[in-house]
Fold this sequence. Notes:
By secondary structure, the chain is α/β, with parallel strands linked by helices. Strand 12, helix 11 (about 280-290) and strand 13 form a beta-alpha-beta unit. The N and C termini lie far apart (about 50 Å).
Amino acid sequence: MKLSYETPPDGTVRDWVDYRAQSDEIAFVFAEDNRTLNWSDLRDEAAKIARAITAQGIAKGESIAILQPNGREGVLAFYGAVYGGFRATMINLAAGRDAIAYALDHCEARIALVHDSVSDMFESARPEKMTRLSSFTENAVELHNVSSSDHALLMYTSGTTGRPKGVVHTQSSLLAGGWAPTVAHRLTDEDRALCVLPICHINGLCVTVMGALVSGGSVAMVEKFSASRFWNQIKTHEATWFSVVPTIISHLLHSDTNPDEQSKSRLRFGRSASSALAPDVQTAFETRFGLPIIETMGLTETAAQILSNPLPPGTRKIGSPGIAYGNEVIILATDQSECKAGVEGEIAIRGPNVMLEYLKNPDATQSTFHGRWLRTGDLGRKDVDGYLFVTGRLKELIIKGGENIAPREIDEALYAHGDVVEAAAFARPCKTYGERVEAAVRVCEGSSLTAEELIAICVEKLGKFKAPDQVHFLPELPKGPSGKIQRLKLQEIL
C-alpha cells in the first residue's frame, strides 16, 4: 500500500484506509471547532457506518445517498459508504430541490446519510422508499468483499444543458483521482491541505480528501470559503497548500486581508482548477501574495485532475493548465485522428482515473468514448512542449456570422481591468449574425466602472467583431457547487 509516484495505487479504498490506520497521525482538522480525526479513528468510525449499512440488507455496489456539508459527519459518511463496498452518491446541496430530487430518484438508493441541517430539504425531495439512516450502533455483521473494479462513487454533473448525468467511478479510478494531484504536486505525509471547496464536488473530494489518503498527508476542512477568514485559517491550521477555483482567487485578490510571513514561507503553492484562470488575475495574485498558483484542469468524469503545471522551478506557462500527470491527454480532429502541435481539436483523456460509465445511460456513455479515450467536449491545442491550451467549450462557443468565438478570450479581456471580480461572456440570439456576444460582470464595491469602458477594452484587445455588444452588471454571477461560473445560465437570468 505504499505510495509510488510512478504507478497508480492498487487495491481498494478500504485497503488504503486500513494501511493509514496503522498510525495515529492526524487525517483531518475541522476548522469550525478544531476537532481532529486521526486515521485509526477514521477507520473505526467508517467501519461502524459500513456495518450499519450492511445490516440493512444493502447489496455491494448499491447507491448510498450522502447529503452532507463539509465537516466530520460528511467525511465519515463518504468513507463509511466506500469502505463498506457501496457506491457513495454525493448530492450537491446547492443544486436546488428539483435537481436533488432527480438525483435521489435516479440513483435508486434505499438509504441516505443526512446531516441535520438539511433534513427539511431531504424530506421534501426524497423518493417514497428512501429512508434516512442515523443510528450506527456496533454490530458484528460481516462486510462485503470489495475489489478494485467495484463501484465506489456516483457524482452528478451540473446538468447545465439537460438532465444531470451520473458519473460512476470504481474503487480503482477513485484512488487514481487522489494519486494524480499527489504526483503532480509531489504531496507527502508532511503536507496539509486547506479544503474550502465542497466535497460533494469532484475537486474537493478527489484532490484534497483522496489526495490525503494516497499521500498520507492531512486536511484542514472548513464548511465554506470565506475571503475574510481564509488567510487566518491557513495560519491557524498550518496548511502547506490549497486547491481553489478562479472565482475564489479573484475574491482573495480583491479582499483586504493578507497572509503573514510565516504562512507565506510554509505554503508551497496554491492550486486553481474547475475553470480557466485569467492570466491577468494569476499574475496579479502572485505579485501581491508572493505565492505560485498552479493552474490545473480536471473533470468529474476523470476523478478531477488531468493536467497540471509543474511546481517551481519547473516551467509554468501562464494561460495553460499544463501537461498530463497520471494519464494521457491528446487533441482529436473531427475525423478522430490525433492533431499535431498547434492544431485545435477536442481534448480527450485515457488513464486509470477515467470513469467507468454514466449510470443507466449507455447512449451517453458510448458517445462520450472513442475507444478507450474519453472525449471531454472541450477544445484546445498543444504546443511543442506538450502544454495544453484550452480554447473553448464545444457547447459554449459563440458562433457569430459563422465564425467561432471562444468566450474565454473575452473573459480574459474583461479581467484585465482591476475592478472586475467575476466575468463571463455568452451568446445571445441575433437575427443578423445568428448569435451576438454579450457579457456579465461583477465589480468590486465602490467601483465606477461603466459598460462602455469594458467594451472599449475588449475592442482594443480583441477587435470590434469579438467585443461584447452589451455588458451586464450583476451582484453575483451564477455558479455551480465548485464556484465555477455557469455562463449558460446567464441567458436565462438576463
